[in-house]
Every structure is written in structure tokens, then in C-alpha cells.
Specification:
Distance between the termini: 45 Å
Largest sheet: none
Shape: elongated
Strand content: under 5%
Helix content: over 70%
Length: 219
């Protein structure tokens, strides 16, 4: 195997780990919000327990990328591919942490009935899941058009976040007894909004990888 073939093979392994990490994060987002919607404390606990596996993959990506730089000494775009893999793993790990935060909200609410059926929060989660999936695909295929789609989806998430806050603030004003749970649901909306920002960061990294310039898709 030539040096180039060895590098491409190792880079392929790095991509596979990122895809696996993305799948785990996507599952964590879905499960955390589902646990909240259904009041499923067992599912919430499983999201928290699974976070260690996400952290382990991030460490594996860091180790593999560092080894690849040390042994292959890549330059230009090849080096950017590895450095961006590091950054992507960091963004995904933070998204997983935010999913854990949502699961912890489920546990704090416990068996208390929700003050309203959840509609917009699950919708936000669905968009963030798509963003997570698309951001990984954009990196693997170096698809700039897909990366730029992050900005539109991020705007959709921001609009839902604002809508949720307005609604929950009205609940708190009308019935002070809902303040505690309303605040917790505001936090959940904020966590999902932050996840969307991290997915958009990955989109920016993909554009930088392909074009050599980093846009501000969060603007």
C-alpha cells in the first residue's frame, strides 16, 4: 500500500467514526425529547448513560487524527480534513451534552404532568436531527450546497425558539404556578437552539474545507 493509499484508508476510518458519532448524537436528540414528551424517566436515564460512549468516540477521533498527522504529515486540504474532523467531533460532543441536559429536565419534571402538549419542541428536535445528519453527509461528500442549507434550517429553529419563549412567558404571566416547569421548557428550547448552532458550525467547516474560506452561516 502506498503512502497515499494508507492516508486515504485512515481518513476513511476517521469518516466512519464521525458518521457513527453523528448517528449516536441524532439518536440522543430524538430520545431525550421523546423522554420529555412522554415523561419516560427510564429513557431519559438511558440518554445520560449513553453519553460516555459519545465521549469515547470523540477521544478515538482525536487520537486517530493526531496519529495521522504525526505519521503522514499531511498538508493543505488533507490537513484541513483532519483538523475539521477534530472540530466536528467537538461540536457533536457538545450536542450530545445538550441532549443529556434535556434528559435531566425530564428527570426534574418527573411524573408531574406537562403544562401543555409539546408540539414545537419536538418539531425543533426533528429539524436539528436533520441538520445533524446533513452536516455529516456534507463533510463526507464535501457538499457545499448541503452545508449552506444549514443556515436556512438554523433560521427555522430560531423562529420556533422565539415562538416557544413567547408562549411559555404568557403561561407564566397567566398562571404563576407554571413558572418552574415553563422555565425548564424554555431551557429545553434553548438547548435545541444551541444544537442547531453547532450543526451550523459543522456546515461552516465544510465550506472552509472545500473553499478555503469560512463563512458565517449563523449570521
Amino acid at each position: 500500500m502506498t503512502k497515499r493509499q494508507n492516508f486515504d484508508s485512515s481518513l476513511g476510518d476517521l469518516r466512519k467514526q464521525l458518521i457513527e458519532m453523528g448517528n449516536m448524537v441524532e439518536q440522543a436528540i430524538m430520545s431525550s425529547v421523546r423522554s420529555l414528551k412522554e415523561g419516560n424517566l427510564e429513557l431519559a436515564s438511558s440518554v445520560i448513560a449513553q453519553d460516555a460512549a459519545v465521549n469515547a468516540i470523540e477521544e478515538s477521533i482525536d487520537e486517530a487524527g493526531t496519529r495521522l498527522i504525526a505519521t503522514q504529515q499531511p498538508v493543505a486540504k488533507d490537513l484541513r480534513r483532519i483538523l475539521i474532523a477534530f472540530k466536528m467531533a467537538g461540536d457533536l460532543e457538545r450536542m450530545a451534552d445538550l441532549a443529556v441536559d434535556i434528559a435531566k429536565v425530564t428527570l426534574r419534571i418527573g411524573e408531574e404532568p406537562l403544562i401543555k402538549p409539546l408540539v414545537d419542541i419536538p418539531r425543533m428536535a426533528e429539524i436539528v436531527q436533520v441538520m445533524t445528519r446533513d452536516s455529516i453527509e456534507a463533510y463526507v461528500n464535501e457538499n457545499v450546497d448541503l452545508a449552506y442549507r444549514m443556515a436556512k434550517m438554523d433560521d427555522d429553529v430560531d423562529q420556533l425558539h422565539s415562538q416557544i419563549l413567547r408562549e411559555l412567558f404568557s403561561y407564566m404571566v397567566e398562571n404563576p404556578r407554571t413558572i418552574n416547569q415553563s422555565q425548564l421548557l424554555c431551557f429545553v428550547s434553548r438547548y435545541l437552539e444551541r444544537m442547531a448552532d453547532h450543526a451550523t458550525n459543522i456546515g461552516e467547516s465544510v465550506v472552509y474545507l472545500v473553499k478555503g474560506k469560512r463563512p458565517d452561516l449563523n449570521a
